[in-house]
TrEMBL record, chains A, B:
Residues 1-92 form the HTH arsR-type domain. PROSITE patterns: HTH_ARSR_2 (PS50987). The keyword DNA-binding applies. It comes from Paenibacillus lactis. The keyword Transcription applies. This is HTH arsR-type domain-containing protein. Keywords: DNA-binding, Transcription, Transcription regulation.
Amino acid sequence: MQLDKVVNYHKALADPTRIKILILLAEGELNGQVLAEKLGVTPATITHHAAKLREASLIKERRDKNTIYFSLNHYFIKNSASATENLIYQRVNPEHTAERIPDADQQLRESVIKNFFTQDGKLKSIPAQLKKKLIVLTHIVSMLENGRKYSEKEINEFIAGFHEDFATIRREFIMHHFMYRDNGVYELNPQEMWARWEDLK
Amino acid sequence: MQLDKVVNYHKALADPTRIKILILLAEGELNGQVLAEKLGVTPATITHHAAKLREASLIKERRDKNTIYFSLNHYFIKNSASATENLIYQRVNPEHTAERIPDADQQLRESVIKNFFTQDGKLKSIPAQLKKKLIVLTHIVSMLENGRKYSEKEINEFIAGFHEDFATIRREFIMHHFMYRDNGVYELNPQEMWARWEDLK
DNA sequence: TATTTAATTAGATGAATATTAAATTAGACG
DNA sequence: CGTCTAATTTAATATTCATCTAATTAAATA
C-alpha cells in the first residue's frame, strides 16, 4: 500500500535533527562521528537517524576503511517538496531560492517517470527513445548504494524488482557506463552517472 | 526559524489517519461526524487531526449552522510533494498520474511567490503587473478561513503580518472581489476567489 | 595479537502524540 | 426554556520515538 510509503517519507522529514543532517550533507559528505559532533548528539543517535533517512532513500552511504560517509541522494531530494528543498540547499546554493523556473528537462524527467513507472515503482516498459531511456536508467540506478560492490546475483534481483528483463537493463547500465564490472563484481560509476544526469538538464 | 515550519508540515503528513482525511476531502467537503464514521474513529479524534492539518494550512473550514465542513486548501496541497499530491488526488482525478507537465502559469505562480515573498512568508513588495499582483493576492487570501467573518481590525492585523501597507492590500482585496465588506465585517468571496484562480491557469 | 577507531546494537528513559470516554460548549429550533 | 446535534475540551491510556549509556562488532594498524 502506498499510504505507508508516503507516511514514512514524511516521518523521515518530520524531525529537526534529521533535517539538520540533510542540511549538513548538502555541503558535502560526512561520516557519523563528525555529524554527531556538529549536532551535539552521540554517534548512536546518528545511526538511528541514518536508518530512517536511508529507508526513505534520502541518503546514500559509502564505506572507506571503517568509516562510513553519508551523502544526499539528490535524486530523491530534488523530487520532494520545494520548501524542503530550499531549506536544505539554501546554505550551499543561495540562488536556489531565487527565480528558478523548472526547466523543460526537469519536466520531461517527471513526465517520463510518471509514464514509465507504475504507482508502486515497477517499470512498465523500456523507452526506445535514448533520452527517455537514460532518465529511466538514472532513476533505477539511483536506488543503489554508492561505492558498494554488488554480485551479479544481487544486481539481477535488484533490477528484477523493477522489470522482468533484468539482463537487458543490466547490459544498458554497462553500455551507458552507469556501472562497471570488475571480474563478476558490479559497482556504481558515480562520476559517469552524475555526468549523464547533468547532460539531461 | 523555518526549520520548525518544515518539520511541522511534514509532521502533519506523517500520520496515516490524516492522509486518509485528505484523501477523503479530495472528493469534496465533509463534516467531522461523517469523517469519523468513514474512518472508524470518534469525532474527538477528528477534531485532534483537524487542528494539526489546520496548523499546516492544509485544510479550510466552513461553518453552516452548527456543522463544520472541512475542505482541502488546494493552494497548499498543490505546492507540496508530487508523491503526496498524487496519492491524495488520484482517486478523484486519475489523469493526475498520467503525463501532465506543469503548465506555464503554474511555473509563473511558483516563481512569483519565490520572488515576492521572503523565506518566512513576508511580502517584499506589491507587484505592479496585474497578473503577478493577482497571484500575490490569491496567495495571501488563501490563508484566511472560508466562511468566517473578520473584523476590520482582524483583517488589518492579518495583512500586516505580510506587509506594512495593509490598507492598500485590503483595498485590492475588495477591488478584485477577493472579499466583500458588509457593514464593517469582512468575509471571503470564495467563488470569486477560485474563479480568478482558474483565470490564472 | 593487542590496540585503536568508527559504527552498531540493546536496553532504558522520557517526551510526544494518537486515541478514547466523558463532560462541556455552541447553535438551531420547537 | 428545553432539547437536539455537532464539535470541542479534558483527562487518562497506550504507543511511538528520540536520545542516551554501555556493550559489542568490524576493520585497520602498530
